[in-house]
């Protein structure tokens, strides 16, 4: 069992008489990237604000490396780096001045460390320009830089790839994976871009109307599950018959494709059998939008109650 | 402790890096410079007293003042004061001092109300702007209590008012020295002694006394603006109410002067110079100690409210 970095224990938040977060409980482990998704108004941002102490909890507790955010705020928040919503900085100061400003608020952040972080997010060139002139992508990088200054154990990023170009997204994604793997940082990413989350995260928590409705594992574990494969094959009826007879797989014809559920390891054998039966296989792939389907299955329509 | 120092350092950077702050200083400098030019060209210079015949000059002036009094009733009060003052010089054989840097500094004390204005603007923005910029979120997720952040912001406002006052003082003195020369290390002036007569006092001393009196009002209004800023997170509202109250303060007291509770109004107590010799308090029965107590109560209320709202309230989405 990996070590717990952050733990939410029956976290509740009421505003007036309305309960907007209805008891969230989950843990995030060291070295994992945890995706936090849900429709607008589900309570993602409220939960993140409670995690970093911007909002008080109505009930329950958030523990960061065992320290409660409510009762031991300074110790708890020392291990957290975060971007909450947009990475807003002082527009009249340069990127460097902004980072130094935050560096002075935390213990033991040296100039060398600031320089290191700047290099890391690739902002060396514009670092002395005023932040007011930055593009959204540059501000996003600066936001990540300030979150990393003090080498936190928990990194909370709200929509981290928002405004980045594809190359930037790739870079940040690789960097996030690297941080989790090499530095054992626990990373929480909120996003509404499902493909984004799918590519970056180890586990995904789906939140709807202030309730956690599902936690799913992506990536590595997927091999254990049956994946939906789509195959372009000729003749299609014969291929379906082969799958049914030799592998007891239910195959469905969708448009020009034959669609079936099977384990990844089975696929080479299936193709071999098909060829032996004179079926021409043109292509086979795992159906995309896997997570997306599950997501919509889980949350239903995008309604805010 | 060193943490608080770096927090204050941060706040000072954020104040002084902004062009609008520099614009404030440029406006102040231009006002002082303009004052010097005006005084140089039209002011009643004291040059005429600097020759050996200054006694005759004073007597001639008295004669002219008397004549004016007979022609114009309105001038009677002012002129008779002036005559008595001139007589005091003659009787005690004191040559009126030349106009110079110190005197100029004293005249520029009026600009401390501009300093109050600028301090109110800074105080009103220091909390509210963080909310407006959205930077409050990144500011509050540091291993520092909210009380610490608020304290550093409040102290930064006081520092700003101190620096700006020093700027007015120093710049006035330098400009005064350039335009009019320096009277000496410790020049003295003749002023009301409070019981109808006159006395010789140190000019520098009276400048600092007046600075002190102005600071009371400045700090109270800045703290008020700071409180509004913390409670409503809106700088325009804070600037508006604080400046309105600063301008209307005296009228408010005047309006309610006949009420029993009028002496508890903040503005009835901010002008402590009313307890100095020769002045009368706003409302009979008020004493220096009473005003100090009222001021302290207001001050504590302002700070406690700022603190309560800043530390206890959630930072929710805009």
TrEMBL record, chain A:
An annotated Gene Ontology molecular function: ATP binding
Keywords: ATP-binding, Nucleotide-binding, Transport
ABC transporter domain segment(s): 6-234
PROSITE patterns reported in the protein's UniProt record: ABC_TRANSPORTER_1, ABC_TRANSPORTER_2
Transmembrane feature ranges: none
Family named by the database record: Belongs to the ABC transporter superfamily.
PANTHER family associated with the record: ABC TRANSPORTER, ATP-BINDING PROTEIN
Protein name, UniProt field: ABC transporter ATP-binding protein YhcH
Source organism: Virgibacillus kapii
Gene expressing this chain: yhcH
């Amino acid at each position: 069992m990996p070590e717990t970095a952050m733990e939410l224990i029956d976290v509740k938040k009421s505003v007036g008489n309305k309960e907007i977060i209805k008891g969230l409980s989950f843990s995030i482990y060291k070295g994992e990237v945890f995706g936090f998704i849900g429709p607008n108004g589900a309570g993602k941002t409220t939960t993140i604000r409670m995690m970093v102490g911007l909002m008080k909890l109505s009930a329950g507790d958030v523990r960061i490396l065992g320290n409660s955010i409510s009762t031991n705020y300074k110790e708890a928040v020392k291990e957290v780096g975060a971007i909450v919503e947009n990475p807003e900085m002082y527009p009249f100061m340069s990127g460097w001045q902004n980072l130094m400003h935050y560096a002075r608020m935390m213990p033991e952040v040296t100039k060398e460390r600031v320089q290191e972080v700047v290099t890391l997010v690739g902002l060396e060139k514009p670092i002395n320009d005023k932040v007011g002139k930055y593009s959204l992508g540059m501000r996003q990088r600066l936001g990540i830089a300030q979150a990393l200054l003090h080498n936190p154990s928990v990194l909370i990023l709200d929509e981290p790839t928002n405004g980045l170009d594809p190359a930037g997204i790739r870079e940040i994604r690789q960097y996030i994976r690297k941080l989790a793997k090499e530095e054992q940082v626990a990373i929480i990413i909120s996003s509404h871009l499902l493909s984004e989350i799918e590519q970056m995260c180890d586990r995904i928590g789906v939140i709807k109307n202030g309730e956690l409705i599902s936690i799913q594992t992506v990536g590595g574990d997927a091999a254990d599950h049956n994946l939906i494969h789509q195959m372009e094959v000729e003749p299609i009826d014969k291929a379906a018959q082969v799958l049914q007879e030799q592998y007891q797989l239910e195959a469905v014809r969708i448009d020009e494709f034959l669609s079936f559920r099977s384990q990844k390891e089975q696929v080479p054998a299936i193709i071999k059998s098909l060829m032996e039966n004179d079926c021409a296989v043109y292509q086979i792939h795992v159906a995309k939008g896997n997570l997306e389907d599950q997501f919509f299955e889980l949350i239903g329509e995008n309604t805010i109650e | 402790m060193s943490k608080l120092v770096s927090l204050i350092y941060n706040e000072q950077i954020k104040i002084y890096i902004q062009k609008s702050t520099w614009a404030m200083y440029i406006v102040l400098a231009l006002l002082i410079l303009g004052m010097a030019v005006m005084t140089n060209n039209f002011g009643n210079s004291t040059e005429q007293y600097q020759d050996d015949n200054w006694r005759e000059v004073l007597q001639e002036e008295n004669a002219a003042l008397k004549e004016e009094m007979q022609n114009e009733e309105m001038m009677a009060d002012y002129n008779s004061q002036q005559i008595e003052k001139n007589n005091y010089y003659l009787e005690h054989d004191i040559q009126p001092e030349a106009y110079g840097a110190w005197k100029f500094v004293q005249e520029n004390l009026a600009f401390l109300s501009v300093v109050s204005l600028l301090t109110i603007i800074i105080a009103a923005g220091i909390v509210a702007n963080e909310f407006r910029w959205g930077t409050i979120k990144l500011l509050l997720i540091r291993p520092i209590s909210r009380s610490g952040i608020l304290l550093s912001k409040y102290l930064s406002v006081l520092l700003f008012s101190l620096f700006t006052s020093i700027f007015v003082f120093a710049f006035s003195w330098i400009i005064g020295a350039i335009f009019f020369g320096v009277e000496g290390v410790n020049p003295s002036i003749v002023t009301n002694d409070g019981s109808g007569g006159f006395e010789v006092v140190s000019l520098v001393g009276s400048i600092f006394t007046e600075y002190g009196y102005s600071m009371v009002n400045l700090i109270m209004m800045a703290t008020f603006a700071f409180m509004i800023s913390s409670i409503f997170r809106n700088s325009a509202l804070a600037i508006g109410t604080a400046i309105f109250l600063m301008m209307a303060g005296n009228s408010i007291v005047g309006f309610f002067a006949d009420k029993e509770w009028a002496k508890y109004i903040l503005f009835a107590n901010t002008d402590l110079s009313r307890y100095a010799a020769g002045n009368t308090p706003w409302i009979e029965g008020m004493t220096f100690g009473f005003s100090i107590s009222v001021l302290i109560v207001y001050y504590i209320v302002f700070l406690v409210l700022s603190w309560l709202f800043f530390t206890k309230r959630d930072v929710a989405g805009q």
